[in-house]
Amino acid sequence: MIDVVLRNLNQESMTLEQIWLDHGQAWQQLGWNLVQVKLWLLCQPSVLIEHTLNGEQAFQIQCAQTNQETNLSDELVALLEKAGRPMPLSQLISKLPAGRVVTEPMLRAAAQHDARLELKGPLLKLT
Length: 127
Fold this sequence. Notes:
By secondary structure, the protein is an alpha+beta fold.
């Protein structure tokens, strides 16, 4: 659900109000208000903030997102190889390097885009 927002931002820059209106169902399901959506956007390492001509902030994905996803996938593969067994996503988050901000949806997206990784319920395993 949230990954759709990021995919849309990858295609074009959008103001906070556009994001709020275009993805209202997602925010409603999450129980988020406009301030929480803005905070979430500001916490995304791949999202750039631009200023429009009328002074509004616009959000867009920076070009290096695919490299970041690849790096996350590589880190997940390395952690799973070291563990030698499937691991829960929550445990993988805690084993990532300090300072790396990652959510379960981000892990799921990275796993879905990498043929070396497979999700089995709450567990992530090597294929």
